[in-house]
Amino acid sequence: MRNFILGVLLTCITASGFAIDSPIKSDSPREYVVTQGDTLWDISNRFLKSPWLWPEIWHANSQIHNPHLIFPGDVISLVYIDGRPRLTIVRRGESGRTIKLSPKIRTLPAESAIPAIPLQAIDSFLRDSRIFNNMQELESAPYIFATKQQKIIAGDGDKVYARGRVNTLQGRTLGVYRSGDVISDPTSGELLGVVAMDIANAAMLKTASDIATLRVLNSNREVRAGDRVLPADTFSQATTFFPRAPDAPVEGSVVSVVDGVDRVGRYSTVIINKGLREGLKQGDILTVHKSLLVKDPLSGQNIKLPPERVGMIMVYRPFEKLSYGIVLSANEDITIGDNIKSPE
Question: Is 2.30.38.10 the CATH classification of the domain at 251-341?
Answer without folding.
Answer: no
